[in-house]
Structures are given as structure tokens and as C-alpha cells.
Automatic annotation (TrEMBL), chains A, B:
Top-level division of the source organism's lineage: Bacteria
Gene3D superfamilies in alphabetical order: Tetracycline Repressor, domain 2
PANTHER family membership: HTH-TYPE TRANSCRIPTIONAL REGULATOR BETI, HTH-TYPE TRANSCRIPTIONAL REGULATOR RUTR
GO MF annotation: an example: DNA-binding transcription factor activity
Keyword Transcription regulation: yes
Annotated InterPro entries: ArpA-like (IPR047923), CprB_TetR_C (IPR054126), DNA-bd_HTH_TetR-type_CS (IPR023772), Homeodomain-like_sf (IPR009057), HTH-type_TetR-like_transc_reg (IPR050109), HTH_TetR (IPR001647), Tet_transcr_reg_TetR-rel_C_sf (IPR036271)
Organism, as annotated: Streptomyces spinoverrucosus
Start-end of DNA-binding region: 31-50
Keywords from the named record: DNA-binding, Transcription, Transcription regulation
Matches recorded under Pfam families: TetR_C_45, TetR_N
This protein's name: Gamma-butyrolactone-binding protein
NCBIfam families, alphabetized: ScbR_bind_reg
Domain annotation HTH tetR-type: ranges: 8-68
């Protein structure tokens, strides 16, 4: 294994360990020693990549948007719907994503950590998709893409939080489906509505088709 | 002042101090000493009302729903809309409410504290109002009142959180207005839509009319 590749793997192992520890313990109670133990790397390797707990938290926060990565689709509104369901589904299995979401949501983060990052990054990531959807005639003329995306990001944040508190996120897919059934009639042109898929198991199905493509 | 009235005032002073400290520092970093200093009560008085930090947090959490108190209205959907705007407005000025919301949202609360309480309490408080709205013919036949209320509670939670992170809650009224403009067409019968008020300053106006009634 080349030196650079090994460094990338080590960095990723540290990030995943940090995400899991932040998810379980929150920012304040997390120590570098806990991350070291989980990541099974040396202290030197950790400090080489992340000089402080703050920088570790910042890096975990910045890892959130890549979890929304899915292949491009002809219908851009369906692509935005799918991103929400895929992120919801990945929250169930990925501790780094859960840790990142917890850091964004908890007010515990210290002044050095910008936990507004994920809100801005999701907005910047999704707004161009809705703008494309508008250009393709998928949206009602009343829709302001950025405003709708900001609503979506805020609502998603709270819905996953409530689902986590009440059911350990078991019902997150169903709750996202309820969100879309309430929002789509105000967003999509009527001719598109019936063709959009926002059923509760959408995330699981999209991920399964991704995996079969890779295999 | 009667002894009982004094006890009620002391309890309230402690709760308000605790809410403010929890809002600023979160559950983990809050100490009883910080609450004592803010409340200006004796240690004995505090422990008489709240034997532990957990019981203090639980009491702060249980204070959330009363902040949605507004007079009954003929249009029940407008009443639900108004409750969201009034709570949003009160979040700007009331540290006890802010502390309660932070405790519900942060994952920092220890096992002894049930921070699912506010989610359940808001759902139980608002669902009968939407059921009344349905009985009065205000809602589309597709609406399931409890499902819509749960969406509303979850979405509100995340929207206020995002507004707090990005603007210190300055734009919360505008964000709530965007939420309602996206949801109402899926909830209200068309004949009602134009008559509903969900403009950004609705909370300030409802509170002002309440105060003029009291005066």
C-alpha cells in the first residue's frame, strides 16, 4: 500500500471512530483518548491529521454532505427526494453520519467549531438541483428553490431528531414520506405528482439498486 | 404574601434561572451552584423543590407546552398556526422556554431525564385541535390529524434549530411562514386558504393583541 493511500485510510479510520464517539457521548464528554482507543491508531497519527478535538469535530461536521451522494437522475425533484431518503437510511447504519448530525444539532459545540456548516452545505448542495428542476418545468411557478431547500433542510433536521428520540430512528422513512406528501403538492407541477416516489422505503430501495450497480 | 404563594414564586424563580443556565451551558455543563447564583435563592429552597439536577431538567422540559397558551379561536387551524408563531416569538424573549427546547434537542441529557416528553406533549396538545378542525370541515379529507401534527412538531423543532444556528432565531417568523405556505395547501380546504394568516409577523401581532386584552 502506498504511503499516501495509507494516510487516507488512517484519516478515515480516525474520522469514523470520532463520529461514533461524538454520536454516543456528544462533544463535551468526548476525549481524544476515547477516539484513539476506538480508531486503534497511534497518538502521533491522530495528531498528525487532527491537531485538536475542535479540528476533529470540524472534520466530522464537514463529512455530512457526501452521504447524500447518489447518481444523477433525469427528474431533479426525484433526485432531491431520493437524497433525503438515502441520508435517512444511512443514518441507521453509519455512525460517522450520526456523529456529524449530532454535532450540528447539539448546542454543546465550543466557539471554535462552526456547527452551522452542515446547514449551509446542504442548502448549497440542494439548491442547484431544485433550480435545475425549475428550469426543466418540474416546479410550480411560485417555488423559490433556495427557500424551499432551506425549509427542507430545517424540517429534515427536526424530523430525524424526533424520530431518534421516540423510536431510535426506526420510523424515519415513514416520517420523511409524510413530510413529502405534505410538501410536494406545493412544489411539483400537478402532472408530475403521481410519478414521484416518496414512499417510506424509498431510501432502502435506492441504496439496494446502488449496491447492485457496484456489484 | 401567603406561604404557599411564596413557595410558588420561589419555584418559578428557580425554574426560570435553571432554564436560562441550561440554555446557555447545556445539561452537562450546568451545575446546581450556577442555578443558585442566578435564582438568588438558598440551597435549602432549591433542594426543597428539586432534589437533583435531573429533576430540575425534567421540570424545565415539562414547562414547554404552557408557552403555547393562547385564547380559543373559532377557526381551529388558525389556532394551531398561531400557537406555532407564538411559541416562535416567545423563544426570542423567554430563556426558560429556550432552555426547555435545548434540553429536548440536545442528546446530552442523562438516562434519568425523559427528553421525549415535549415531543409527546406537543403532539397530544395539538392533535385534538386539528381533530376539531376536521370536524368543523376545515381540513382536506386526506389529512390524518395526528400524522400532520407530528410532522409539524418535528419540522418546527428543526426549523427553530436552523434559525438559531444561522441567525440567532432572528428569521424564525419568516421560516415558519415558509413552512405554512408549503403545508397549508395539503391540509386546508381550498375555501379556507385565503382567509388564514401565516405571515412572518403573526406571532408578534397575536402576542400584542393578548397584551392589550390583559391591560
Amino acid at each position: 500500500m502506498a504511503k499516501q493511500e495509507r494516510a487516507i485510510r488512517t484519516r478515515r479510520a480516525i474520522l469514523e471512530a470520532a463520529g461514533a464517539v461524538f454520536d454516543e457521548h456528544g462533544y463535551t464528554s468526548t476525549t481524544i483518548a476515547m477516539v484513539l482507543e476506538r480508531a486503534e491508531v497511534t497518538k502521533g497519527a491522530l495528531y498528525f491529521h487532527f491537531p485538536s478535538k475542535e479540528s476533529l469535530a470540524q472534520a466530522v461536521l464537514d463529512e455530512q454532505v457526501p452521504f447524500g451522494a447518489i447518481p444523477s437522475q433525469p427528474c431533479k425533484l426525484q433526485e432531491v427526494i431520493d437524497i433525503t431518503f438515502v441520508v435517512g437510511q444511512r443514518l441507521l447504519s453509519n455512525a460517522l453520519l450520526r456523529g456529524s448530525v449530532r454535532l450540528a444539532v447539539d448546542q454543546c459545540a465550543p466557539p471554535g467549531v462552526d456547527h452551522t456548516g452542515p446547514f449551509r452545505q446542504w442548502t448549497d448542495h440542494l439548491t442547484p438541483l431544485l433550480e435545475q428542476a425549475r428550469a426543466q418545468g418540474e416546479l410550480l411557478p411560485t417555488v423559490d428553490p433556495r427557500e424551499t431547500v432551506e425549509l427542507l433542510v430545517g424540517a429534515f433536521t427536526g424530523i430525524q431528531l424526533m424520530s431518534r428520540a421516540l423510536t431510535g430512528r426506526d420510523d424515519l422513512g415513514r416520517r420523511l414520506s409524510v413530510l413529502w406528501s405534505h410538501m410536494l403538492p406545493s412544489i411539483a407541477v400537478p402532472g408530475l405528482l403521481l410519478g414521484l416516489d416518496s414512499r417510506a422505503d424509498r431510501g432502502a430501495r435506492v441504496l439496494a439498486s446502488l449496491e447492485s450497480r457496484v456489484a
